[in-house]
Amino acid sequence: MTALVTGLLAALVGAVVGVGTHTLNQRLGLGEEDATEPPLPGEPFWAPVLDAAALGFLFFRFGVSPRSLAAALLLVVLVLVFVFDARHRLILNKVIYPSIVVALLTSPINPLLQADNGLGKVDSAVLGAVVGGGIFFLFVIISRGGVGLGDAKLTFFLGAVLGFLPIQGSPIIRALIYGIIVGGVAAALLLISRVRRMRDFIPYGPFLCIGGAAAVLLPCGLLGPASC
Question: Model-level pTM?
């Protein structure tokens, strides 16, 4: 099976999964009293299109492997969080807490973590969670509400999945850098266009999801090879 066919099949599966993701997001919204924002323009297509694009690119570039399957699960979770947070400016504990638990419990066998053995993977996951979550927890304190606590929980989760090691080119650090850059550019554009004002809350979760996805899909940088 060629890479193109594999990617197209994965995109089809992603679109189907995205339909389920959209349905789940609607049900989660109904059960959350703080989820009161109106639907996004074309929202039923957001998750199917994003899941199809992410999974199609993933399997086209990396093929079918344990790493690709683990990355696919991560991407589906990130799309779920991305769409819900983009609409409601809210990252649900009922989603992020179980995701954190699963990420830590499966860290010894997580193929996304770079280490020679299971113990090394656990170390990388714990360090990644502490570093990722800790950095954004500081942002929560410093910003005095400008950054939500949900963002710190999201980065804790990303750190547990992606890991901190190796220190040079740390996956969680790259994910945070990508997310911060994309978020900064988007925030600047929103302010310049006056869609948002300085004191308006801008959800950072979607940008962190983009950063996490980029760290998985582009492990060696935007123009780098598939492995490094």
Answer: 0.93
